[in-house]
Each structure stands twice: as C-alpha cells, then as structure tokens.
Design a protein that fits this description.
The chain is mainly alpha-helical. It has 13 helices and no strands. The chain is 73% helix and 0% strand.
C-alpha cells in the first residue's frame, strides 16, 4: 500500500505542521491536573510561581506534546486510514522527522523534570515511559481497550495532580490528595474510551481492540458512563466525610449535570461523543478543581 507519509525529503516545508503534530488542544487536561495538585498541596503560590509555571509547561506542551508526537509517529499507518490529513500521513512532516521530534521532546522533558527536584524528575520519567509504552511496539498498550485508556487517564489526570502536589511540598503528598487524584484518574478512563469512538474504523482494520471495537459503540458508551460516574460518587462521599461539605455538594451537582448529559449521549454515542466531550467532560474537570480547593482549605484532612 502506498501512503503519503513515506517521503524522502528531510526538510519540514510547513513549520505549523509541527505545532499541529503536538496538538495544543490536548495540553489542557494535564496542565489543569497539575494546577489541581499545586492548589491541593496547601503551599503558598506566589513564592513558588516560577516553579509552578515550569511544571505546568512540562505537563502540557512538553510531556503531553511529546506523547502526541510519539503516538502520531507510531500510529502513522492507522492515521493513513482514519485521518490521512494529519501531518505525518499527509507528508507535511516527512521522513523520520516525526520520530526525531518525539525523541528530542522526551529528552527535553527529562531535563526540565530534573529542575523540579527528585519527585518532579521521577514523575516525568514515568510519564515519558508511559507515553512510549502506550504507542510503541512491542508493548503498544493502546491495543487494549482497558490498558490503553487507563495509562492515558493516569498520565492526563492522576500523575500530573500527584506531581504538582509533590513538587510543591518536595515530599510524597498526603493520603487524601493521592486518593482523590487516583479516583479522578480512574474516571478519566471513561473519557478516553469516548475519545476512541473517532478512530473506530481504523482501529478495526489495524487490530486496536478499543472498547468501542470490542463491545460496539452503545455498550462501550454505557461502560464509559459508569466508569466516569462511580469514582466521582466516591469522591463526593469522601469529601463529605472529611468535612468538606460545601465542596462535596458542588461536585455532586456537577455529577448530576454529567448524568443529564450522559442520558443524551447514550441515545447516539457514535454521533454525540464529541458533544459530550465539550459538555460533560467540562463538568468533570471543574469537579477536580473544586476538590483541589477543598483539600487545600481543609489541609491534610
């Protein structure tokens, strides 16, 4: 099969293609989660502002951007079917440039992570390793509808939250922060499953056993809804039991809003998954920040 991404030119004719490759729109979740970690740590913001900005840049443009470049390089055959207009299959990033960009950004991530102390470096090392394990053979966790979304959810929500808190305190975050961050990471598995709907046909043809491929769109959407909702209900109960009653009430309202959006989603999941990502997911991430302030206000609950 002849596809456009196999080109011999080693120059990038369109620099904007690099920005498209690292997908700025995907940077928001880890940056937001890192900010949640910073806030939940209870540490003063202004004296650590430079460190915070560096950490947010690491979580978003560098590590997340690197993961997008690595994924697009390893997925160039799939994208030739699903989205042939992407930078690599279209030839706008020719030859081995996609691979070189991903490797260079991986090294840059480790250099920046080292500036954040031992906790920041170890978390960065884990994030970089997870990004390659998700996309690259022979591991290629994305072949699994369970492990693939799980590792992405961990690196988008749980790991940045943990890292933000750990870098601020330069110690292992308290139990309550770890539990809430972990629960939101579990819930994000459902969000990642909904993201798999857009690649359904290409995944079928290339052996990616995503949940929409394995169970079909309707059942996969129901699984995603349960996975998103259940951890948040546990979050509400935990926050209330720790004394953060008002924060628990706000999160419960946000969960109720997601439930209403889910009812519409389940009517036509294949068509409405992008709509839910713009509505229900917004309420999900707002709940994260509410919990971060609750953890901050109530200290080591």
């Amino acid at each position: 099969m002849s596809v456009n991404y196999i080109k011999q030119s080693q120059s990038i004719s369109n620099p904007l293609a690099v920005l498209e490759l690292i997908k700025p729109i995907t940077w928001f979740p880890p940056m937001w989660a890192y900010a949640c970690g910073v806030i939940s740590s209870g540490m003063d913001i202004m004296p650590n502002l430079a460190l915070i900005i560096l950490g947010i840049a690491l979580a978003g443009p560098v590590v997340c951007g690197m993961s997008q470049a690595a994924n697009d390089w390893c997925d160039r055959h799939v994208d030739a079917i699903n989205q042939p207009d992407r930078p690599i299959p279209s030839g706008r990033i020719p030859g081995l440039w996609g691979l070189w960009i991903a490797i260079t950004m991986s090294l840059l991530a480790l250099v920046i992570g080292w500036q954040l102390g031992i906790w920041g470096f170890c978390a960065t090392l884990l994030g970089v390793a997870a990004a390659w394990a998700y996309s690259c053979e022979p591991i290629r966790l994305k072949r699994s509808g369970w492990w693939g979304p799980g590792i992405v959810a961990l690196c988008y929500e749980g790991l940045p939250w943990f890292t933000g808190a750990a870098v601020m305190s330069q110690t292992f975050p308290n139990f309550n922060i770890v539990v809430i961050a972990s629960l939101y990471a579990v819930g994000a598995h459902g969000i990642m499953t909904l993201n798999d709907f857009k690649a359904l046909e290409g995944d079928k043809q290339t052996g990616i056993n995503s949940l929409p491929v394995k169970f079909g769109p309707d059942k996969a959407a129901k699984i995603a809804c349960w996975v998103m909702t259940t951890p948040q209900l546990i979050v509400v109960m935990l926050m209330a039991s720790w004394g953060a009653i008002e924060h628990a009430m706000v999160v419960s309202c946000l969960v109720a809003g997601q439930f209403l959006a889910m009812r519409r989603l389940l009517k036509d999941p294949l068509k409405l998954a992008p709509w839910y990502n713009a509505t229900g997911v917004l309420m999900f991430v707002l709940g994260m920040m509410v919990c971060a302030f609750g953890l901050r206000n109530f200290g080591a609950l």
